[in-house]
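User: Can you write out an input/output pair for a complex, sequences first and structure second?

Assistant: Here is one pair. Inputs:
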Amino acid sequence: MHGRLFANLAAFGRVLRGAGLRIGPGRMDCALSAVALAGIRRKPDFYWALRSALVADPAQVAAFDTAFELVWGRRPHESVDLEVDVWKDDAEAADDRADAGDVPPDALSLAAAADQGDGERDDARRDSPSALDMLRDKHFDRMTADELSAAKRAIEHIAPSLPCYPTRRHRRAPAGTTPDRRRNLQTVARTGSLAKIQYTAPREERPALVLLCDISGSMQVYSRVLLHFVCALSSQHDKAHAFLVGTRLTDVTRTIRRLGPAAAVDRICAETRDFDAGTRLGPALLEFNKSHARRLLSRRAIVVLVTDGLEGASTDVLELELARLARSCGHVMWLNPLLRFEGFEPLAEGIRIMTRHVHSMRGAHSLRCVEDIAHALRLGLAREPRPLRIDARAG
Amino acid sequence: MIPQSIDATVTMLERAGYLPERGLAATVFFALQLKRPLFLEGMPGTGKTEIAKVLARSLDRELIRLQCFDGMDQSAAVYEWNYQRQMVAIRLAEAAGRAADEAAIDRQIFGRDYLLERPLLRALSPGRGGMPVLLIDEIDRADEPFEAYLLEVLSDFQVSVPELGTIRAPEPPIVVMTSNRTREIHDAIKRRCFYYWVEYPDAQRELAILERRLPDLPARLARDVVGFAQQTRGLDLFKAPGVSETLDWAEALMRLDLLELDVAAISLSLGILLKYQDDVARVRTVGPAGLLEAARERRGDPAAAG
């Protein structure tokens, strides 16, 4: 099966799961066999191939139809030549942007479709473009509870991923280029001749990602949203970690995996008593460098700091620890919600210190910012030269 | 001959007198080709059982029907030893003085010919034309322990009889499961199947079915019957009439030599269309005349004032 079609079908499965359908690998397998039989020439046949394998309840039909329309375009019962649609990237099919091949999928529309799965299919179609665009640029601190929920779900669909890099260890790979000396010798020792040469290739790994979230005062909104981002990442990547910085540093990686990001933050906030003391990033970084950095960080690791930089504690400690942190990892990314204000200038001492030591700074105040972050992560981050040029994106 | 395309499936079913929606034909096609069970859910009277019969006829296979009920167990669904025959065999052996040879008697009474094969086990053996069509009807009436057992059978198509060993099907039978959705069937079963929700047909399809099954039915009467039935489905009835009820009703009205429907005929024969007294009373309250008129207006009949 053509790679693109396969990828699109897998994406379709993800959308359906987001909408609440339980699609396991067995069902997906069934669906793929049916699609192979039905072919992709006629849309109604393609639709029925997927529906008969993936839907097992009449209550799921509406959600399925919405997802189908979103991913494959147009109404399912139109007998239009489908070939054009199935080869399209899911971003292009959902939103006709044909410029960059790397455009991230339209996460919001996928999540919105998942939300409005039961009924109001026409409303979803009518409202989608304008409503979603508004939501994408809306600042998190101005969103209503419903909008925040939608944004969080959209973030889960953004599917952030980090690029792999080769390591020194090798693994067996028939298509590799380095001969596997150990195995080849074993074969010769056992059989006396070498009928087939075994090869190896370097193992690939993804870099670690550590998120340090400030949850004091106004930062809470942004931190909560970005924790969903880490949640989505850690579901695919076991080297993603999250810490919360309140009056002290708390490791919430396991809690997030167990309870979900919202519950984790709630629990920490319940334990933390004092929010008005301002950010205490310096002492938190000290704690992190002492207890966790050696365990978690590596040359290629990425540390993401979510804070406004308005340091309440001593700035000397902040400078020292930040410099040490920058030396211990590959890239320090600063997500600063203050960038939502146009004409932002680093005047406060804490902010100036941070701009001296971090490698990049981005806004974190809207969904578009999060999409950009995911995009940047996917492409891979390189060490940028300091001093940092502040690119105040008013998202 | 297993159809090789969705169009071929539609043709095959239509030839046998069943007019399916394309979605149903597609699902049947996938189920046949990929050798997976077909799970049909829907309101009673929408032709779920019928399609199994049609499949058996079209593919020239034996139809084995397992009608599920609450409390159904292995002895009703899979196999049972023919205890009476075994007893008789033992008595005969005793009488003939062979009672001491236990091993021989054992072998005899626990042989295949003393086993009463119930539907699930029978379906594992090939019959006329190939593997049979196994219809597991109204699975929602069986209980959960049975579902668990069924899951096991449907996964491997084999049955273990402790005294005999494992009996395996050389290839999977064609399995059709139906449910009236009176309770949720466990996802583990549905996951193995191709699923289709059978709806009431739309007016056009129902008319086509009527014309096919009852070619002597006057055209106007057919249209009236279909229109009225469609209208009643819009009411909040306990059991809306299915296609089989529409067919029965049409046939009964034909016997009355009517060319078109009128209120008197409706009142006489409402019990054929609706099977519950509460529903009959409700339609009488709403007024059959009104429903008939609405039906005629809907299809743009100039005689709607009638």
